[in-house]
Amino acid sequence: MLIYFFIFTISFAFAYFAEKNYRKIPKFLYAILILLAILIPSTMAGLREFGVGTDTKAYISQVFMRMQNIESVDKLSDYLQTADTEPLYVIFNFIASRFFTDINMMYFFMHLLLLTITYLGFMKLFKEDRKYIAFIYLIYLILYFNRSLNLYRQSVAISISLFSYFYMIKRNPLMFAATILFGMGFHKTIFIMVPLYFAYPSFKNIKKISHVKFFVIFSAIFGLSFISYPIINTLIINGIIDNKYDAYINQFIVNISPVDYLIKIFAVLVPTLLFKKKITTSSELTSYTRIYCLSLTILSMAFMFGNMQRISYYYSLAILLLYKGLLKKIDKDKYLIVFILVLMCVLYSWLTNGLMGWNETVPYRSILGDII
User: Fold this and answer.
1) Tell me: the pLDDT tens digits for 311-327?
2) What does the longest C-alpha to C-alpha distance in the chain come to?
3) Which of 60, 132, 204, 235 has the CB geometry, 3.0–4.6 Å to 287, for a possible disulfide?
């Protein structure tokens, strides 16, 4: 894990210097520093050996190799009509295959795309509070980078959902819909953001009556986990939905440990207890807290349906917005709180990716040799 944390720290340093001196340094220098903050972890992703990240053994290599054998746009169009993989991901592979045939180059450029979208998303969300962008980017790298080496397509969709959050908050339905459609070009699960757009006004309501609505929403979603199997199974048998989704929805494999779930609960419980007044008196922070709690509700279904964990990722991004919002309102010991938050995230990453070996990214095996 040390190599990951070392790379994350260097990337953070470039981003922090750039954002801290945003108004003091030339825009060209600012762009170079941010590019370095993105290029460094992208290079790490590009240099990894085959098998670092479980999806490298599945569709990543297969799609890229298939694109190398498609010689024209017409043949690409024919392929897209029958492909199981989302179209924008396929098109990205097709374009990349015109310039290189090395799968490691594909690893690199895919992460370059992913992290560029991520950073632009943070810039969009935190335009008025730029000094927090580098910190949130560091938290993102610690929590999501190893996972992105596995969930390739969905990680891009998750990053695109940052823009969905922005337009949801600004109540811009057209741009929100555009981000959803764009994200679905990489992974259809981003559609789970649509119900959130309509629920968001209630989530912002800090009146006590809203807690009743909130409880009803939680109960309804949790209850669906117990009736979804016969419903989905009936739809598949009758050919209403493709049977390829059976593996995602009806997978009775526990894909989360109780320890992981408890850590995720503490991620919101601790700041809520420490800064209860700041959260409960802010409709913005209240909404982020509730969205994250909604992700925990969906995540609880992973104890019954393994892949529900993947659905929860979109809503769990709200924890980043909550942390940023809290930092903005905290006057004392701000840097100490930042240190504690980073330390908590490092311990979580070390536990899940290092000790438990999730995502098969530790040890980091590169084409240059194994590195712990």
Assistant:
1) 889 999 999 999 999 88
2) 63
3) 204
